[in-house]
Amino acid sequence: MCQNISLTTRALCAALAVATLSPLALAKDATMTFTTPSNRRPSTVKIGLDPYRDAQVIIPAGSTVEQKRNLIRDAIKAANPNLTVEDVGTTGLKIKDVHDDTNVTFDPGETGEASDKISCAAPTHGAIEFTGFFDPMDWNSQPAVFTAGIITDVGELTAEVSASELNFQTEGPIICQALFQRLAPQAPQYGADLLFVGDRLEVYFDPAYSITVGGVVFGSTSQSAGNSGSLSTGQATGYHAQVTGACPGTVDLHWSGANPGQQQGVVFALNTGSLVVPNGPCQGTQLGLGTNGIQLYATIGTGSGSGTISASVNQSACGGYVQLIALPSCATSNVARVP
Description:
The chain is mainly β. It folds into two domains: 7-25 and 238-337, Immunoglobulin-like, CATH 2.60.40; 28-232, no CATH class. The protein is built from three helices and 21 strands. It has a seven-stranded antiparallel sheet, with helices on one face. A seven-stranded antiparallel sheet has the order 3-2-6-14-8-12-11, covered by helices on one side. The chain has a four-stranded antiparallel sheet with strand order 18-17-20-21, with helices on one face. The longest helix is centred in the first third of the chain and has 15 residues, at 65-79. The chain is elongated and about 65 Å long.
C-alpha cells in the first residue's frame, strides 16, 4: 500500500513488491582507523576484542600507516581465524559480524600516532585513556600532542592539547582534564555524555545520535605508551534493520529477527523523533521517527524472518531514516539511516 508518495518513494514501493529474500546475520561491524606511526624503534601494539582472542604485533620503525594496518589486520586474523577482517582504504580495517557487547580496545604503545579511531553503528559507550606519565617530547624532539574526540551521526568532535600548553606537566589526569575542558561544552550537541574520571574520559552515546556510527578518537605523539581507546559495540536488536548502498542510486534495506511468514510495514522520515502511529492496525505505537518528510507506508512479507529489498532512490531520500513495524504484533525495529 503506497499513498500520497513522491517519485522517490514510488521507486521504493515498486521494489517492495518484488522483494528478494536472503539471510542476514544479526551482528555488528567494528571499524578501526589509524594514522602514520612515528616510532624510531620497534614498538608493540595491542588489540583487545573481548570476548574474542586479543592480538598484538610489533610495528617496525619507519612503517607507513598502510604497513601498520596490514600487520594489525593479519594479527587479528591469526588470533581469530573465524573472524572476517576487511581493509578499509589504506588506513583502516573492518572486523565483521562481532557478537553483541564486544569490547574493542586499541593500545598503540609507543608508536606515537596522532589520531586513531574505533567506531561502529549504535555503540553504547567508550573510553579514552592516558595512563601514567608521558614523555613531553615526541619522536622528532618536538612537544608531544595529545588528542581525544567523539564520533556520532552529527559528525566528529576532536580536541588537542600540546605538552607546551600543559607546561610540560604530562601526567595522565592533567592531560585528560585539559581535553575534557575543550570537549565537554560541545559534546551534548553531538549526542554524547562525556565524563572526566582521573586518567580517562568516558563517553556515553545517545542512541538517537549514533544510529549509523558512534566512536572514539584518541592519540598521542609522545614517545611513551599509556594512551588507548575502547568502544563497546552494544547489542544488535532482535528486530534489526539496516540500509546499505549508495544514495542517490541503489540502496538495500535488510532486516532480521522478524517473525517468519508475517507482514511488516516500512516507514520513512527525514528525521528521528517519537512519532505515534495515528491510525491503522498499529495505532498508538510509538516509533523512533519524526514527522518531517513522512512519505511512505508500505507492507511487505517478512519471509523467513530475514531478508533484503533493493530500491532506486534520489537525493531527497539521502540521509533519511527507515523503521520497520511488524504486523500484527506492532513490534518495531531499530531506526536505520539511508546512506
